[in-house]
Design brief:
Elements: H1 10-13, H2 23-45, H3 47-53, H4 60-82, H5 87-110, H6 115-146, E1 161-169, H7 173-181, E2 193-200, E3 203-209, E4 215-226, E5 230-235, E6 243-251, E7 258-266, H8 271-280, H9 285-302, E8 307-313, E9 316-321
Antiparallel strand pairs: 1-7, 2-3, 3-4, 4-5, 5-6, 6-7, 8-9
Length: 331
C-alpha cells in the first residue's frame, strides 16, 4: 500500500516512543493484569462463590452480575498484559473500580447479605483503585512526554483496530469513485454511520452509532484524492473516534467492473477494552466491513440494499444484505 504523506501518518508511525514506559510502571501493570485475570476467572467460573465471599446474596441476579464483571476483568487483564504502557487500560480499571464501589455501596445500603464482608470488599477495591490511579497517571505522563498519541488526529498504535477488505463491483471505476467520493452517500451502506456532512475544502463531519444507544462524532479531512483511483481521509484532533481510511479503485481483470480495496484503522471507544467487549457481543469489525461492502455493491449495482431475513447477531436482531449466489472477489 502506498504510504500517505508523512505529516498525516505520525498518528501511528511515530507512536513507537509510547513503549518507553518505566520498568516500575510495567511491573505494576503486569501485577494488576494478573489480578484482573485471576479475579475474572473466578467470577466467571464460580460467580455464586465470589458473591458469597463478598457478602452478596447468592441469587440469579448477583450470579449474572459477577459473570459480567468477570468478563470485564478478563478483557482488561488481557489488554494490560499485551499493552502494558497504554494508559487507556489503566483508566478503564479506574472506571471499573468506581462501578464496583458503587455496587458494593448499594448492597451495604440495602442491608442484605454479609454487611461486614461487603465493607471489607469495598476497602480492598478502594486500595486497588489507588494503585490503578497511580499507574494510569504514570502512563499518561509518559505518553504525554513522548509527544505521541492523537496530536494529529490519527489512531494510536496500541489501541487501534485495523480492518482491510476488498470487493468487486460491476461498475466502471469512474462511477464507483464518484459515488464514494461524495461522503454523504456512505451512511447508505455503512451500518453504523448515521450521517456524514460535508463542508467544503475536503472537510466533513461524521456521526456514528456507539454501544448503549450512544452516538460519537468527529471531523475529518481528505488527505489524498486521485480521481477514479484513491481516496484517503483522517480524523482531525479531538475526534471521539480517531481514524484513518483509504479506499482504492482498480479495474477488475477481464473487464468485470471495479475492485474496491478498503483499509480502515480506528481507535474504538474505550480503546482495546471497547473492541474486546464489542466482539463479545457480536460486533466484529471485519464482519461489519464485509457486510458494509456487500451493501455498497448492491447499492451500486441495483440502486438499493436487498435485505435478507433477520438474524440474531450478538445481542441484536439484524437484517443483513442478501448474499449473491457466487461471492465476488472479497477478502
Amino acid at each position: 500500500m502506498e504510504r500517505q504523506p508523512h505529516q498525516h501518518t505520525n498518528g501511528w508511525q511515530d507512536g513507537q516512543s509510547q513503549h518507553q514506559g518505566s520498568a516500575a510502571g510495567n511491573g505494576l501493570a503486569r501485577g494488576l493484569a494478573l489480578l484482573s485475570l485471576g479475579l475474572g476467572l473466578a467470577q466467571v467460573a464460580a460467580p455464586a462463590g465470589v458473591a458469597k465471599l463478598i457478602g452478596l446474596d447468592e441469587d440469579d441476579r448477583n450470579e449474572k452480575l459477577m459473570r459480567a464483571i468477570g468478563l470485564r476483568e478478563l478483557a482488561m487483564g488481557i489488554g494490560m498484559l499485551t499493552q502494558p504502557t497504554t494508559p487507556g487500560w489503566a483508566w478503564s480499571r479506574v472506571a471499573g473500580d468506581a462501578m464496583d464501589l458503587a455496587l458494593l455501596a448499594a448492597a451495604v445500603d440495602e442491608g442484605k447479605g454479609g454487611r461486614e464482608k461487603t465493607i471489607a470488599a469495598m476497602a480492598s477495591v478502594a486500595g486497588i483503585s489507588v494503585l490503578d490511579i497511580r499507574l494510569a497517571t504514570q502512563l499518561a505522563a509518559a505518553e504525554g512526554a513522548s509527544g505521541a498519541g492523537l496530536e494529529l488526529g490519527g489512531p494510536t498504535p496500541d489501541s487501534s483496530v485495523q480492518v482491510t477488505r476488498a470487493i468487486t463491483v460491476n461498475k466502471p471505476p469512474q462511477e464507483v469513485y464518484r459515488f464514494w467520493r461524495d461522503f454523504q452517500n456512505l451512511p447508505r451502506f455503512m451500518l453504523h454511520l448515521e450521517s456524514v456532512e460535508t463542508s467544503g475544502n475536503g472537510r466533513s463531519r461524521w456521526t456514528a452509532k456507539a454501544p448503549a444507544g450512544r452516538t460519537v462524532s468527529w471531523d475529518a479531512e481528505i488527505v489524498q484524492d486521485r480521481p477514479n483511483s484513491l481516496i484517503a481521509w483522517r480524523s482531525l484532533p479531538g475526534a471521539d473516534v480517531a481514524n484513518l481510511g483509504t479506499v482504492r479503485f482498480a479495474s477488475a481483470p477481464g473487464d468485470r467492473g471495479t475492485e474496491v480495496h478498503v483499509d480502515l484503522r480506528y481507535d474504538p471507544p474505550a480503546g482495546k477494552l471497547g473492541a474486546t467487549i464489542a466482539k463479545l457481543f457480536g460486533e466484529e469489525p471485519s464482519l461489519q466491513m464485509r457486510q458494509d461492502l456487500f451493501r455498497f455493491k448492491q447499492v451500486m449495482e441495483t440502486g438499493d440494499v436487498v435485505r435478507s431475513d433477520a438474524t440474531l447477531q450478538g445481542s441484536r436482531l439484524r437484517q443483513h444484505p442478501a448474499q449473491p449466489s457466487a461471492e465476488p472477489v472479497l477478502r
